[in-house]
Amino acid sequence: MKPRADSFSLPSRLLHWLMAPLLLAMLLIGVGMISTVSHWRLWLIGIHKPLGLALLVLVVLRLLLRLLGHSPKLPSSMPAWQRHVATLSHWLLYGAMFAMPLLGWGMLSAAGYPLPGIGAFHLPSIAPQNVTLYAWLRYAHGVCGQAFFALIVFHIAAGLLHALVLKDGVFKSISLRAKSGHR
Which of 109, 93, 65, 95 is closest to 149 using CA atoms? Predict the structure, then answer.
């Protein structure tokens, strides 16, 4: 399917809207995991690990679609600095979507914790078992999570600005309800 010039491809848009609530849930589950010592903590960890791996697979697909497909240009009416900030924030989001599950995977590996898997298949360790490395990866996972949360809030605010105030087609380019047409 050839994508329209004014929107992302349908698979890219579907992945965007599938991943958005999963990423928010993942961040909130992470906050819940570190905020409680009740029996809910183990339940949250049981969701967090496989969801993180699923998001890692989805972001690989999404990046491939982004690199191999078409990305609509931002409106020429946007100042250059805003286009640069938008481009930078999108690549920072991709970086965080890769970094978070990899830091978590590395953290589990360094701690010697069991890694999630499917049936008899379990993920291999990606880091040596080392308590100092575990502590550093845990810290990095937390800092990256906070930065990721801030990026997501910024991304949502920018999306709402484009959708509700500017109405310049930027939000429409990723919307599932986009109609065909060129700018």
Answer: 93
